[in-house]
Amino acid sequence: MITKPVLTALLLVMLLPGRHVYAGQGADSLSIKIGQMLMIGFRGLAIEDAPEIVEDIRKHHIGGIVLFDYDVPMKSPVRNIANPEQLGKLTVGLQGISDIPLFIAIDQEGGKVNRLKASKGFPRTVSALHLGNLDNPDSTIAAARKNALTMRAGCINMNLAPVLDLNTNPDNPVIGRLGRSYSVDPVVVTKHALLTAAVFREEGVIPVFKHFPGHGSSTTDTHKDFTDVTVRWTEKELEPYRAMIDAGYDDAIMTAHVFNRRLDSRHPATLSKKTLDLKLRNQLRFEGVILSDDMQMQAIAGHYGLDESIRLAVQAGVDILLFGNNTAYDPAIADKASSILHRLVREGSISKNRIDRSYQRIMKLKERFIYYCK
Known about the structure:
Elements: H1 4-11, H2 30-36, E1 38-41, H3 51-60, E2 64-67, H4 84-96, E3 103-106, E4 108-110, E5 113-114, H5 128-134, H6 137-153, E6 158-159, H7 186-202, E7 206-212, H8 239-246, E8 252-255, H9 273-283, E9 289-291, H10 298-301, H11 306-316, E10 321-323, H12 333-347, H13 352-369
Parallel strand pairs: 1-2, 1-10, 2-3, 3-6, 6-7, 7-8, 8-9
Antiparallel strand pairs: 4-5
């Protein structure tokens, strides 16, 4: 059994020298604080192809972008990633136009969920399930190192991985069938996720554990519709989170859009104050950044309006609202989300102090990890 001292040691790795990320005069304005709470997806292989994201960075001060290799609405393999050289030019160019360094995020789990594909000139990867079945720490460390170095070479500083979901339902269409879970055993999941995260952190890539409070038992896909895990979910699915937080992990955790009546009888986890503020913040004592899963997925967008979903998510405790723009594409989504947040603050539905808390968590994480990339 992996002990708490071992878990703690995995987290105490050397980080790269931080880049001072606070902007100059006006850095604490409400517009900048709200902008830092937004992570946006876009179309384009080069800055010249993506005027909308350039405007989002310059005008709305968005804090992050998320990259994809395939455009789902267009059913096209042309999105943001063509080859290693092109990727590096794109990411360096985007960082160059932002006053505050960006989170540049990707889903690079390995196996089937893998944006940096061998067919486009990147190294091959293996799935979490493969590594969990091997249960060999050296193999997991080697796979994580290769993945991290690939991301760093592309100036990607945040990986929306590793997955902490337990493989409780192997027929799960979005977790089990895709080999995204290390194991049904929370001890195995914890061990390999922490080994992976430690390597990522050592190489300057922020690991984002997901999907809180557990997506492994679902029978449906939150990308497509409402997903209820009430009957199958158990408290065991919280064990990897509890172990890592107890060991000192405080980087970032991504929410699930799953509905779990055992935690909240009204709202899915991303919109649930009982799940995020009460369970994750107060009971598990997580102090890092809470990142939403894609707010345009149908489990949210199909049942809540944009205004309501943003209000509920921020009130629940979400620090970064992710709009991947790859379930549906809306080039004005950053402008809409920013305007909604400004209005909610003016109306008093969300306090300035609440915005400040998210901004401080985000900037603390950027100070620790963001580095110059050329």
